[in-house]
Predict the structure.
Amino acid sequence: MPITRFIYITIDPADVDKAVDIWKKECGPLMIQQKGCISERLLRSRDAHEFISCSEWDSEADIEMYAHSDAHAEIVRHTRRLKGAKAEVKLYEAVT
């Protein structure tokens, strides 16, 4: 059963456009290329400085492999360029 990975992100409101640009050009395309990544989307809250990265994975093992990969390290480097960025990762599985 696929696992959905949410990353809840808050950033400095001044960096919203930069965050969207980094995700579209760097982070999203890199993540979707990873083994087991089925889909990836970035959601922006109506409170514009909050985002959710939503990705669906074949398995938790694939997520773990990605979390220890060079691709993940590169994504972390990109997101560290954002002022005040804070992230919280949570995993969910469908029950219905």
About this structure: The first strand starts at residue 3 and ends at 10. The chain has three helices and four strands. The mean pLDDT is 93. Residues 3-93 form a domain with the Alpha-Beta Plaits fold (CATH 3.30.70.100).
